[in-house]
Amino acid sequence: MKETWRLIDMRIEDAPTQMAIDEAIAMARLKENTPNTVRLYRWTPSAVSIGYFQSIEKEVNLPACEKYGVDVIRRITGGGAVYHDYNGEITYSLVAPEADPKMPADIMDSYELICGAIVNGLAGLGVDAEFKPVNDIVAGGKKISGNAQTRRHGVILQHGTILVDSDIRRMFQVLRVSDAKISDKLIQAVEDRVTNLRRYLGRPVDFDEARSALIKGFEDTFSVALEPGELTGAETRLVKQLHEKYSSREWVFQR
Amino acid sequence: MKRAEYKVPGGKLLAAELGVEEGRLVGVKITGDFFMHPEAAIIDLEKALCDTPVEDLDDVVNRFFQDNDVTLFGVEAEDFVKVVRLALEP
Q1: What CATH number does residue B63 fall under?
Q2: Which of A69, A181, A202, B79 is 20 to 30 A from A239 in CA distance terms?
Q3: CATH code linked to domain A3-252
């Protein structure tokens, strides 16, 4: 019989809640003997997440975020800034013990394996994508997914973004990419480097179709069945505590 | 405060913000889109750099990465020296 992992399916929450849930699942995994977990989720309101080491002032156009009602949050994972567009992006996360026989001990090998689940999921939609080290997935040479992993509490937490139909103009209004003003020329250059499912496939892809393909990608890659479930009571209590951290100025503005 | 950015060729962005008082580094802050495991090691590195005489920069960074079990992606230990040096340039 196939091993079963928990699927927490398409919760739509604000930025502090989403980041609190990912961390809570990682904290509880060994302590509370919870199952390995895959989450798919969307952010409301739309939000910018920055990597743990990034400078908020240098990476985020805070007045633009204020103007457009876009949340700003700092992740516990490294890597770059991501615009989580409510209408055009799916985030995933995966939590499993470092000692899980299915998880490579080597960090880069585990990136490749977990990103492989996304690559396989995208293949089901007709997207010919590949893992590009350190932490990207590209299709037709353009980035379609960014990923970030941390290891703590004896557990691997990897989360990442899949661009479905993101508003690239808004993305570059809220992220500080360069001092140059956002001109059509800059957006063109970005379109040369970044793509999304709609642009790549030349047709709209709804969230449900993308969601089903990603679930299958995880199931096939890890030879598991994903069974829909909810957070445990202990996890829910952790989420409440962590929500406070993620909403605090001390955390978000720490560097 | 002095600040410099350094994009590692084929890698990630690294930035350093710091001051110098009587030949020693103060208020060192390292930022960027790199990966460091464990993440909290960055705070230890910044602490190690603070109060370091400028001429000991290489030694302190090298010793930090020798003594601590830190894994880097997108940057290498020597890039931290490079970006601090860039920030120190007049």
Answers
A1: 3.30.390.50
A2: A69
A3: 3.30.930.10
